[in-house]
Write a structure and sequence with these properties.
Length: 188
């Protein structure tokens, strides 16, 4: 039932005993069955598609970012499940250039929010000459999680009503893809 079976080629699931440190395990897909093989050294083991990025960690990330005087946190709007769509602005809104970065349109692609976490850690570092040079010329808007509803619900690719946000940029609506709608409104 996989939408894109070629995505399983050379794929290796992740596992963890403590839900903090994740490691790859042998995984195979024969066209119908995904098989994870692991001889556990513990009584309990957790498996995941990618290392999870929980919504609690997302809330911690937004809280951390806004402690920096370089960052302004804003809620662009509410999702269909009533969650805040967070946007972080680094730099001055009237800068000569504008840069937008969004992550987790597909909520199961958690590695994107791990990347955002590293990006935010770099953007708040006043000693980074590259960041300083960029923020002298540009404003950066980050949406660390475009799909909080899908993230909370455990969806791989869709939001609360089954919309794939990657396919909504030319037809966003408050009924099907408010996440994209709100980002586009902010970009305007």
């Amino acid at each position: 039932g996989a939408a894109y079976q070629a995505g399983w080629q050379d794929y290796r699931a992740v596992a963890s005993y403590d839900r903090e440190f994740w490691f790859r395990v042998d995984t195979s897909f024969d066209g119908q069955n995904l098989v994870i093989e692991h001889n556990s050294s513990k009584d309990q083991v957790y498996f995941a598609y990618f290392a999870p990025y929980p919504m609690e960690r997302h809330a911690d990330l937004v809280a951390f970012a806004q402690t920096s005087e370089r960052c302004r946190a804003e809620t662009l709007g509410l999702t269909l499940d009533g969650q805040a769509l967070d946007c972080l602005r680094f730099g001055e809104a009237d800068a000569a250039r504008t840069i937008w970065m969004v992550a987790r349109q597909h909520p199961g692609e958690t590695m994107a929010e791990w990347w955002m976490e590293a990006m935010i850690n770099r953007l708040v570092d006043h000693s980074d000459p590259v960041v300083n040079a960029i923020l002298d010329r540009a404003v950066i808007y980050l949406v660390p999680n475009m799909n909080p509803d899908g993230s909370r619900r455990g969806h791989l690719r869709t939001n609360a009503v089954g919309s794939n946000l990657n396919r909504e940029w030319d037809k966003s609506s408050l009924e099907n893809s408010p996440e994209v709608f709100y980002v586009l409104e902010k970009i305007k």
